[in-house]
Structure formats: C-alpha cells, structure tokens
Design a protein that fits this description.
By secondary structure, this protein is an alpha/beta fold. It contains eight helices and 15 strands.
Length: 365
C-alpha cells in the first residue's frame, strides 16, 4: 500500500540550511553525511509538518539559521490522507510559529488531518532508563498519532493544574477555587487516561502475530499515586498533602510507561543497550502498522541514526519491514554502507557542510 509521503521539501534559513529543495518519490530516503552536516535538521523540518514542537522540541526562535536570525520557513508538497496538499510552516523573528494548508491559515492541529508521523531519535535510546517524564512524552506522542485531539486534553489539564499549583504555593485554602479547577482537571484527566490506554492497546495488538525480527514489548501504564475512577475526589482528598508539598501529587501527570522484553521476561530498563533499542524499534513499527490499519495508509517515519546499536542482520530486517509496510521512512546515517541492504529500494542523498552551509546531492545506490 502506498503511504503518506513528502513529495518535495523546501527550507529557507532553517537551522544550517540557508536554502534547500529536495524532491522525493515515496521510497525510503537515506540521508548520509558526517556529524554536523545538517541531516537531522532535515528530519526536524519534516517533523514540523505535524502538530507540536517537532522531534527536538525546540522553540520557534531556535530554528532560525544563525547569524542571520531573520526567521525561517518550511514548505512541502505532500501526498496526504485524502489528497495532495501544499503545507507551509514558518516563524518570523520574535514571532510565534504559523501554519498554512493550501494557502489558507490553519491551526497546528489541522496538520494531523493531512499527515501522520512517527519518529525515533537518538535521545530516545535512554527512554527506559531516564526519568518518567521522557516516557510520558513518548507515550503522549504515540497517543497523538492515533488521537490528534489528545493535545487539547493535555493542554486543558496542564493549564488547570498550573492554576491549582499556584493556589497551593500561595497557601490558599478556599475550597470553592479548588473545586472548580479540580473538576476541569478530572474531565481532562479522564480523557488523557482513556486515550493513553487506547494507544497502548493498539500497540500491543499491532505486535500480536507480527512477523518481525524485533522483540515484542509488553506495555503497562502505571501511576505514582493511583486515583481510581474519580480524579476530582482524589484531588479534593489530597489537598492537605498537596498544600504541604506546594504541588499536585496525583493525576495523569505522574503516570509512567512500563515495558518488558516479553520473550525473556526482563524489564526494559534491565535489558542491554541493543535490546532497549530493538524494543523501541519494535514499538515504532507497531505504531506504524496500527496507523496503517486505521488510516489505510502507513505514516511517514523519521528515523535519526537508526542503525546505531543494530547489527547487519537487524538493519536488513528493519529495512525489509519498512519496505513491506510501504512507508516513506526518512533515515540518517554517517556511512553509506549502513544502507547497503536497501539497494535500489531507497533514494540516497549526500549531506555535506560547505563553509557553514549545508549542501545536498542525490546519489545513485
């Protein structure tokens, strides 16, 4: 099945790219070049064609090329969920990021009606051994791929929680103010929990029976402070303790994602570095398979330095899985040989740094 795809990409004053244009044909893409040449910057630009802050979670002002710092722009022609579209996103110096779809201003969330993306970046290699916050971000990004409206529930919850935390820090004891905020948190929190549980169920189902060289990951959502079915009640009962702490101690903002290498019965944080990477890749592929089943087309995959910690056989297995899925996977690597097993199934683009400017050149397989 033909997947969602970037057909052409234009960058202006974006990170190391003063001006660049790339044309893709829907096949996987291998971006090859030395560290610092600008490969990941291309992936980041593509990631901004979806809602949110992109794969580096950078602020809009940090994306502009230096020293000019005059703002930046990313434009693309894409094969979307229902038709081809022209997408643009940009930010002028000192201004917020903006989006246009087919020449018309649009909110960021509207990008999810055109494209869906899944990504894996080197910073995620520490997912299973870092603090719970990183796993929550990974989980919520996965949720967003299935339920784009999840972002609104998260924003509503966080806004109400910030206001409640302000009352707690100020020592306010008025039950009326707490009650109103806690009702908002309970409504949004229930949606967040529902969406997260749905996403985990979809990942587990997509791993079931899949023919893959990557290990099945058993997943579970855990809570630092279980709150049952009534978050508003849990918040009300916990006010005295929260006042002492100066912050909210119960709710979906304290959830965690636990994973187990099922074949070995070993928790992910106890696995080897290579096994942890394989578990992540397994989940990314499961995410893509589940979206392909839901949408009728696989998503775009952004895989930064994906070959790290993979032996030759696992690399070949990954590329076979991507091609079987029919997905446009845009990958980076420092050596051309990392992509040898793709043969003619992929486009290859050399990325080089020339006097502080990134340059691109298409290469034959």
């Amino acid at each position: 099945m033909a997947g969602l795809a970037i057909l052409s990409l234009q960058l202006s004053h974006f990170r190391s790219h003063q001006a660049a244009r790339l044309v893709f044909d829907g096949r996987p893409v291998a971006l090859v070049g030395a560290n610092g040449a600008g490969k990941t910057n291309i992936l980041e630009a593509v990631s901004l064609l979806s809602p949110g802050r992109g794969l580096r979670r950078a602020a809009a002002e940090d994306l502009a090329r230096r020293p000019e710092a005059i703002g930046w722009k990313v434009g693309a022609t894409v094969a979307g969920l229902s038709a081809a579209h022209e997408l643009e996103t940009w930010a002028e110096a000192g201004a917020a990021r903006q989006v246009r779809i087919d020449g018309k201003a649009a909110p960021q969330v509207a990008l999810a009606r055109v494209l869906r993306m899944v990504w894996l970046v080197p910073s995620m290699d520490r997912l299973w051994i870092e603090a719970a916050e990183g796993r929550r971000r990974f989980l919520d990004r996965t949720v967003l791929s299935f339920v784009p409206d999840h972002a609104e529930a998260v924003l509503a919850y966080e806004k109400a929680m910030r206001e409640r935390n302000r009352l707690l820090k100020d020592g306010v004891a008025d039950a009326f103010w707490y009650g109103a905020l806690e009702a908002q948190m309970a409504q949004a929190g229930a949606a967040i929990r529902r969406n997260r549980e749905l996403a985990v169920a979809r990942l587990m189902a997509a791993q079931e029976g899949a023919e893959t060289a990557f290990p099945r990951a058993g997943l579970a959502i855990t809570e630092a402070e279980p709150w049952g079915e009534d978050l508003a009640l849990a918040l009300a009962e916990g006010r005295r303790r929260d006042l002492a702490a100066g912050r909210t101690l119960v709710g979906p903002h304290r959830a965690d994602l636990a994973a187990v290498f099922e074949a070995k019965g070993v928790a992910a944080d106890q696995c080897s570095t290579g096994e942890q990477k394989a578990l992540l890749i397994s989940l990314i592929l499961a995410n893509a398979r589940a979206l392909a089943a839901d949408l009728g087309r696989p998503p775009i995959l952004l895989l930064d330095e994906v070959a790290a910690h993979l032996d030759m056989d696992r690399r070949a297995a990954l590329y076979d899985a991507l091609c079987a899925l029919g997905a446009q996977a845009i990958m980076t690597g420092t050596e051309p040989g990392l992509f040898d097993s793709l043969g003619a199934r992929a486009q290859r683009i050399r990325v080089t740094d020339e006097a502080g400017r990134s340059a691109l050149q298409a290469e034959a397989p």
